[in-house]
């Protein structure tokens, strides 16, 4: 059995808030209970939004909270060739296809279908599923357009991906209270032809996360319930790429007083704001229901 290995994997698109602190402290507590280790991973593939000061801020905030992580800290932006190799493996098996549609074209296609009274299925986030326009293009047309340098994403060919599996994907869930495991069916089909490779970088959140969890030997993923539905897609990618699958626990989210998710864009106080007004790390630990681990 591999040593229990967990990860806290923030995206440096802003400063950490109490929701991140809760997730990081819960990861630390579970790692400790399991006699394992907690790694830090910086998920910085969104080059348009990532800023070096946010990375520095995350490191400072976690240090302030009293969390220490083994070096080296993995930064996804340093591993684009690895993700591109995974993309190429999926493409070689025709499990993904290039999609040249702009957001506007997709919205227009969906509006046309809606006007005809066609059903508009939606993914678990409520976004209408991609109507599959580019899945129907010939390989020759797709190649010619790529060779002309037309911007494109790569989408899962969901029907082909599901056909490629010998058995339906499953997810192992564990309870942090007693370690109990249960295996549940995953339902990746509800994501439709999801984007697996973005336009600007040779990966996506979904592709990077399954590659990295495998490369880093992650045995237990502890993250917020907002990512629970995405695990279906991760289970599918793990099967298609032959990657080991960690066990998962999706924790309840820390919410603002109005019940909304915490987010910088909604004006949630960051850990740095709390620190600046005299809140201590011990206050944060206690406020989130954690006994000090030290
Ligand atoms: N980077 C993601 C976030 O900050 C978390 C990814 C994960 O834990 O799988 O929301």
TrEMBL record:
InterPro entries noted in UniProt: aa-tRNA-synth_I_CS (IPR001412), Glu/Gln-tRNA-synth (IPR000924), Glu/Gln-tRNA-synth_Ib_cat-dom (IPR020058), GluQ/Sye (IPR049940), Rossmann-like_a/b/a_fold (IPR014729)
GO molecular function, one term: ligase activity
Enzyme Commission numbers on file: 6.1.1.-
Keywords: Aminoacyl-tRNA synthetase, ATP-binding, Ligase, Metal-binding, Nucleotide-binding, Protein biosynthesis, Zinc
UniProt domain Glutamyl/glutaminyl-tRNA synthetase class Ib catalytic: residue ranges: 6-271
One Pfam family this sequence matches: tRNA-synt_1c
Protein family membership: Belongs to the class-I aminoacyl-tRNA synthetase family.
PROSITE patterns per the UniProt record, alphabetical: AA_TRNA_LIGASE_I (PS00178)
Superkingdom classification of source: Bacteria
The protein's name: tRNA glutamyl-Q(34) synthetase GluQRS
Matches recorded under SUPFAM superfamilies: Nucleotidylyl transferase (SSF52374)
Enzyme class: ligase
């Amino acid at each position: 059995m591999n040593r229990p290995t967990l990860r806290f994997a923030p995206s440096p698109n802003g400063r950490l808030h109490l929701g991140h602190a809760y997730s990081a402290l819960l990861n630390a507590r579970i790692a400790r209970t399991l006699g394992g280790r907690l790694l830090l991973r910086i998920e910085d593939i969104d080059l348009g939004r990532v800023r070096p000061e946010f990375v520095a801020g995350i490191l400072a905030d976690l240090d302030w909270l009293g969390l220490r992580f083994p070096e080296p800290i993995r930064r996804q932006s340093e591993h684009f060739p690895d993700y591109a190799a995974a993309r190429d493996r999926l493409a070689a098996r025709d499990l993904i296809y290039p999609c040249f549609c702009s957001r506007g074209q997709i919205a227009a296609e969906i509006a046309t279908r809606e006007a005809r009274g066609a059903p508009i299925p939606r993914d678990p986030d409520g976004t209408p599923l991609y109507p599959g326009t580019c899945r129907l293009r010939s390989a020759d047309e797709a190649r010619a357009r790529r060779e002309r340098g037309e911007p494109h994403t790569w989408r899962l060919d969901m029907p082909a991906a599901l056909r490629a599996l010998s058995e339906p994907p499953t997810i192992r869930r564990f309870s942090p209270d007693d370690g109990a495991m249960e295996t549940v069916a995953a339902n990746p089909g509800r994501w439709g032809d999801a984007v697996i490779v973005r336009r600007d970088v040779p990966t996506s959140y979904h592709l990077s996360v399954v590659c990295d969890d495998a490369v880093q030997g992650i045995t237990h993923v502890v993250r917020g319930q907002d990512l629970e539905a995405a695990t279906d897609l991760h289970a599918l990618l793990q099967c298609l790429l032959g990657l080991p699958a960690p066990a998962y626990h999706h924790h309840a989210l820390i919410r603002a007083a109005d019940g909304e998710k915490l987010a910088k864009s909604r004006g949630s106080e960051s850990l740095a704001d709390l620190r600046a007004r005299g809140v201590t790390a011990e206050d944060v630990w206690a406020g989130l229901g954690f006994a000090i681990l030290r």
